[in-house]
Design goal:
Elements (H helix, E strand, L loop, with lengths): L3 H14 L7 E4 L12 H4 L5 E7 L2 E6 L4 E5 L4 E6 L9 E6 L4 E6 L5 E5 L24 H8 L6 H5 L10 H11 L12 H20 L41 E5 L2 E5 L6
C-alpha cells in the first residue's frame, strides 16, 4: 500500500496538473470505485472546480468549489494518472474524468481504492476522516503527546506505529525503517519505551519519510507510480525492510524477519532492542 511519501508525491503531481481545473464530465467504470457515496459522482462533480489538493497520512482529497471534498484513497493499488484524453487504456481503469485540457484517470487493479464525496469539518478535514490522526508533517502534530499515547499501549511497537488513530501515514515500510534508525525492536511492547525513545521514533519516522519523498517514494512494482507513471527510487536506500539475511548497514549482523500481528517486520537482532 502506498504510504505517506508515495501519496504526497501523487498529491504534488495533482496539485501541479489539475488544481484550478473544472470537472467537465465524470465516468464511473466500476461501481466499487464510487462505493459509499450518497450522491452520484457522475452528476455531482461536473461543473465543480478543484480549489486545493490536500493530504493527511495516506489520504488525498480535493477541496471543491461547492465547499465539499472529494476524498481519494489509493489503498493497495490505486493510481491517479494525468495525461491526454484517451491515453489511459488499462483494463483496470475505474474512473475517468474530463478536466478540460487533460484527463484524470483512476486506475486500480485490486479495486480496493475509491473516490468519496463528503463534507468538510470546521478544521477543513473531510468528515469521513475524523478518525485519522495528524501525520508527522502537519503543524498540529505533537510528537511529545503522541509518544505519551503510544507508551500507554500494551501492543508491540510496530503495531502501535501503524495505528492511524495515533499517527497517520506510516505503513510497514517506513515503520521498519524508523525502528531500525531508532534502534527499537518491532516486537518490543510500546509501554516499555521511555518518553525520549517514543519521541525519537516519531522523529525518525518523519526523517525517513522525508528522505523517501526526495526520491519519489518507494516502488517495488508497477502498482505505485506518480501522476505521470514514473516510479520512486527509495527502495535502493532501505536499511531494514525487505533485507532479510543481508548485512545491517550499522553493525554487519544479518537482518532478520519476524511477524507482528501477521505483518512481516524486518530488523537487526543486534542493534535493535
Amino acid at each position: 500500500m502506498p504510504e505517506l511519501p508515495e501519496v504526497e508525491v501523487v498529491r504534488r503531481g495533482l496539485d501541479e496538473h489539475v488544481c484550478g481545473a473544472t470537472f467537465r464530465s465524470v465516468e464511473v467504470l466500476h461501481p466499487r470505485a464510487a462505493r459509499g457515496n450518497d450522491v452520484d459522482l457522475e452528476s455531482i462533480l461536473p461543473g465543480l472546480t478543484i480549489e486545493a489538493v490536500r493530504r493527511r497520512g495516506k489520504y488525498l482529497w480535493f477541496e471543491l468549489s461547492d465547499g465539499y471534498a472529494l476524498v481519494i484513497h489509493l489503498r493497495m493499488s490505486g493510481q491517479m494518472l494525468v495525461g491526454p484524453h484517451g491515453e489511459v487504456t488499462s483494463s483496470h481503469l475505474r474512473i475517468r474524468a474530463d478536466m478540460g485540457d487533460v484527463e484524470l484517470a483512476f486506475v486500480d487493479q485490486r479495486t480496493f481504492g475509491y473516490w468519496h464525496y463528503t463534507a468538510l469539518d470546521e478544521a477543513g478535514i473531510p468528515a469521513t476522516m475524523a478518525h485519522i490522526a495528524p501525520d508527522p508533517f502537519e503543524d498540529v502534530f505533537a510528537p511529545v503527546d503522541v509518544s505519551r499515547a503510544m507508551r500507554k499501549k500494551n501492543s508491540a511497537v510496530k503495531t502501535v506505529l501503524l495505528d492511524q488513530g495515533l499517527v497517520s501515514g506510516i505503513g510497514s515500510i517506513y515503520a521498519d525503517e524508523a525502528m531500525w534508525a531508532a534502534e527499537i525492536k518491532p516486537t518490543r511492547k510500546a509501554k516499555t519505551l521511555r518518553q525520549k525513545d517514543g519521541v525519537k521514533l516519531l522523529e525518525e519516522s518523519r526523517d525517513v519519510m522525508a528522505r523517501a519523498l526526495e526520491q519519489g517514494g518507494t516502488s517495488f512494482d508497477s502498482l505505485y507510480v506518480n501522476v505521470n507513471g514514473a516510479s520512486g527510487y527509495f527502495a535502493r536506500s532501505l536499511n531494514a525492510y525487505g533485507r532479510e539475511d543481508k548485512p545491517c548497514a550499522r553493525c554487519g549482523s544479518l537482518i532478520a524477519r519476524t511477524k507482528v500481528n501477521g505483518r512481516s517486520s524486518y530488523f537487526c537482532p543486534t542493534c535493535q532492542v
